[in-house]
Design a protein that fits this description.
Function: Removes the phosphate from trehalose 6-phosphate to produce free trehalose.
Strand content: 15-25%
Mean pLDDT: 82
EC number: 3.1.3.12
Family: Belongs to the trehalose phosphatase family.
Catalytic activity: alpha,alpha-trehalose 6-phosphate + H2O = alpha,alpha-trehalose + phosphate
CATH class of the largest domain: Alpha Beta
CATH topology of the largest domain: Rossmann fold
Number of helices: 12
Bound molecules: the ligand O=P(O)(O)OC[C@H]1O[C@H](O[C@H]2O[C@H](CO)[C@@H](O)[C@H](O)[C@H]2O)[C@H](O)[C@@H](O)[C@@H]1O
Radius of gyration: 21 Å
Helix content: 25-40%
Pfam families: Trehalose_PPase
Distance between the termini: 70 Å
Structural class: alpha/beta
CATH architecture of the largest domain: 3-Layer(aba) Sandwich
Shape: globular
Length: 384
């Protein structure tokens, strides 16, 4: 079988406006907010956090391996700043400064709620929500990443007003068992396993009935085979964990000693180099293996809009809220369509196609509650 060099070049660029550009912060933002890098905004300096996922060179150590490890650390917003070594006391404040600058371009969806809703007013809202890091906080054990009852209630309320879908890297069965709301659409396995609510949508304008779409079904046997190999190959690395997400796999290293990250990556590489039809990406302390088909969360969003009967409708306003790289595909679709709004959940500056931001799942909860209140009050207004 053809061997492939498993190299993913990914870069995370944090664009930092100069002090001149941030001297006069504007208290409110128009919709859409300023475009990110490369679109004629006030960027004059870039801080590049290299995110080269170069597994081929990992085993050999050296600079490439170090840079890969550094990029994985940089990608982890859950890093405890208080645990930073004493000799780099300025790191936290530098990150905060960068975040403040970044917020100029990706303002808080909560602080600017009225502006956001002005853009959505009169349009059919459709809500797309990522799960991990968005509805549930990031925790060490992926099997215990539960969402709170308050969050469930907020999602339930929002879904009673607007068609709502959960879009996750997890398999549909698992994420739906966490969310426990049968009235939602679920797009698991990074959008490769789409299911509509069994009893069809409650929303008068939405059409989709009993949707089931699995564009990567031919990969099931291969994924299962690779899952077994990965479990076997990585079992000697304490803390590592392979999660079977049906049409894709996750190899977790959140609980692996940093000194063993490269060894783990090398072991993953040794397995998947024999499968040129699989690709490797990385998320929040996780390596993700999935089919090379041109399908992602962005395609899933488009598919769901179409199956809901909203394709080509200009009076539809999709919100997509997510925290991870895989959510960028969906943010990009919204940006390219010039429709709706992407909201990135993050505590650190990241290059993104999202327009607005929220800091953490607790803010997502507040945002969903405000959306529900907004809908309630606009209904009350209509009734008067
Ligand atoms: O698309 P998502 O719903 O955000 O899923 C992406 C991955 O999320 C999960 O892993 C992440 O959350 C875990 C629990 O908090 C955490 O332990 C892990 O480090 C994170 O990467 C999930 O377990 C993966 O399978 C998903 O691919």
């Amino acid at each position: 079988m053809t061997k492939q060099n498993v190299v993913m070049q990914e870069e995370l660029a944090v664009a930092v406006p100069t002090s001149a550009a941030i001297a006069e912060p504007s208290p409110c933002f128009s919709y859409p907010p300023p475009r990110a890098a490369g679109s004629g905004t006030n960027y004059t300096r870039y801080t590049k956090l290299s995110c080269r996922l170069d597994l081929a060179s990992c085993g050999g150590g050296g600079r490439a391996a170090n840079s890969w490890i550094e990029s994985m650390k940089a990608l982890s917003p859950t890093q405890a700043k208080s645990a930073a070594p004493r000799e780099v006391p300025s790191l936290a404040s530098r990150e905060e400064e960068e975040y403040d600058s970044w917020m100029m371009l990706h303002p808080s969806a909560l602080d600017n709620f009225e502006e956001v809703m002005t853009a959505a007013k009169g349009k059919q809202i459709v809500m797309f929500l990522d799960y991990d890091g968005t509805l549930s906080p990031i925790v060490d054990d992926p099997d215990r990443a539960f969402m709170s009852d308050e969050m469930r209630e907020a999602v339930r309320e929002v879904a009673s007003h607007f068609p709502t879908a959960i879009v996750s890297g997890r398999c549909t069965e698992k994420v739906s068992s966490f969310v426990k709301l049968s009235e939602l659409h679920y797009a698991g396995s990074h959008g490769m396993d789409i299911k509509g609510p069994n009893n069809g949508p409650k929303h008068p304008k939405a059409m989709a009935q009993n949707v089931l779409f699995q564009p990567a079904s031919e990969f099931l046997p291969m994924i299962h085979e690779v899952y077994k190999s990965l479990v076997e190959t990585t079992k000697s690395i304490p803390g590592s964990r392979v999660e079977n997400n049906k049409f894709c796999l996750s190899v977790h290293f959140r609980c692996v000693d940093e000194k063993k990250w490269c060894l783990l990556a090398e072991k993953v590489r040794s397995v998947i180099m024999d499968y040129p039809k699989l690709r490797l990406t990385h998320g929040r302390k996780v390596l993700e293996i999935r089919p090379t088909i041109k399908w992602d969360k962005g395609k899933a969003l488009e598919f769901l809009l179409e199956s809901l009967g909203f394709d080509g409708c200009h009076d539809v306003f999709p919100f997509y809220i997510g925290d991870d790289r895989t959510d960028e595909d969906a943010f990009k679709v919204l940006r390219d369509r010039g429709q709706g709004l992407g909201i990135l959940v993050t505590k650190i500056a990241k290059e993104t196609n999202a327009s607005f931001s929220l800091r953490e799942p607790a803010e997502v909860l507040k945002f969903l509650r405000r959306l529900e209140e907004w809908k309630q009050s606009s209904q009350d207004g209509e009734a008067q």
